Amino acid sequence: MKIIGIIPARFASTRFPGKPLADILGRPMIQHVYERAMKAENLCDVLVATDDTRIYDCVKSFGGHAVMTASNLPNGTARCEEAVRLYDDESINAVINIQGDEPLMNPIMIDEVAECLRDNECVTLCRELDGDFENPNVVKVVISQDNNALYFSRSLIPYKRNKSDLPVYQHIGIYGYTVKFLKEYVALSNTPLSDAESLEQLKILEHGRKIYVKVTRCKDENVGVDTPEDLDEVRRIMKYA
Q1: The pTM is what?
Q2: Which of these, 98, 206, 96, lies nearest to 151 by C-alpha position?
């Protein structure tokens, strides 16, 4: 199976404009993400999909691969779909959508998604959550007995009224799709639950499609950079790693 990793990267951000180019120990954040993705064993290539020449030029400057996508795309998934079309390699079977604001991402997670794509058309990861249950920025997922997502929510799920030992799983925002599924996904109409929770992945479930969820074996803490304060925390972690 031939799988490409795509990192969507926009310059415009409501909370943190220019985030992909933010400096972390002398290198831009997008370079940290790119270099970690390149360490995954199951990717044939890594591509940054951007709508900004500053990001494009930055990626090219450190020897990475990048493609310019439209500026009016609704989300990172649509940017991945356009990027794989522009990449123009019909031998690509699947795409892994790698978040451009997680410079601490462990490449093991990419390989876990890649392995599951051999038997599933859409894959994501989760880990057991041991706190921060009420934080709406921590997305939770409940999973069926055959490891397919039942629901994602910013609220606490499940509500453990009668079974206190049930785990709570935190969704990890990395996705894998077959190219066929990705093309079908971006064509789906918006859905009420997806809009209400502002969780793009719910659109898949509302249209009756499946998302396979693997509990990652990786114990590393993911620190996504949404704010300058998050960036300071990542710098601190990397400095003393």
Answers
A1: 0.94
A2: 206
